[in-house]
Design brief:
Distance between the termini: 84 Å
CATH class of the largest domain: Mainly Alpha
CATH topology of the largest domain: hpI Integrase, Chain A
Largest sheet: 3 strands, antiparallel
Helix content: 40-55%
Shape: elongated
Low-confidence stretches: 36-42, 169-173, 358-363
Number of helices: 17
CATH architecture of the largest domain: Orthogonal Bundle
Strand order of the largest sheet: 1-2-3
Length: about 375
Amino acid sequence: MASGKRREHGIGPYVPQGQAGVPEFRLREARWTTIGTHKKRKDGVDLIAAAKVEAKARVAAVTTFDNVARIYIRDVGSRTWKADRQKVEFERILATYCKSILATPVADVGVGDVKRILDPWVTKRPTMVASVASVIRRVLDTAFALELRPLGVNPASEDVLSKILVVRHKTKHFASMSWQAAPTFYKSLPGSNSPQAVVAAALRLLMLTALRRNEITGLRWDEVDLDAGTLTIRAERMKAAAPHVVPLSTQAVALIRGLPGVGRGTFVFPSPRKKGQSIASTAFVPLMGPTSGATPHGMRATFRGWCEDHGVEASLAEHALAHALTDSVQKAYRRTTALELRRKLMQDWADHLTAPSAAPANV
């Protein structure tokens, strides 16, 4: 009896005295063990509740940080990550930075462990600290949810880290070229007879559309509608997790129509070495190189600078870049993505990139 309710619970196998194994339980011993909160006996045990606590403790004692990390990858990451590279990066951080705690019972991982992992990178690679801490924090949050850790503050929470680490972040801007220099660079890219023709075409399309690097390198044929003159990048490939429709200029349509194998396969820009994959996100490096003084992502800043200097409305330019508007007035005013207005904008930008240059511009 416990709290006025009768419950049944086994207390072990019955083996007669004199035989090998567990000795015989005497009836009085069984009563003493299970008496619970009887008014005359205060030292009894609720076996059912105790068994549950002991079972959880046993599971927690043998469940390692790595075990819970795998559960997170399987049950959480697989449903929330937008690209395979996020899983790869998560596993890389586990193997590279968290290896000292992988075999540690997840219930035992504490602030000291987190500090030892992050301390070496505070000065070497401060931008890596946040990424590693995020991985540890998510795994430990999963352990809380699975009741493998006693409830409390996450040792890798931002509040704890602010007290045990001093990280000086440096804002990094992606190098970009001036919009005046962009046409010269655009025309300097290799032509269709070059071994780098496919990569050069991808970089030209990146400039024409102001899309992000991975949105171009991973572009799929089912996202292309040449008759409508649009690209529709799927939500799972967008940073804001929302589909983005890009109106294509006549130059962009002509560029895509001129690609080898139009409409065949999965990717618009397939890898020349790996069948069934797109070109790598690093493919633009040899074309841009140190002499350009710019990066693929910096081309978006080049486009944005051109918009500012040509009187393009800020909300329209932000829509073209697939940025979320933060100003409530702009949100109310620009209720649509203004596809036709953006079509004219992207055509004007393409005309600028492909216009004859009077003289070479400094990059």
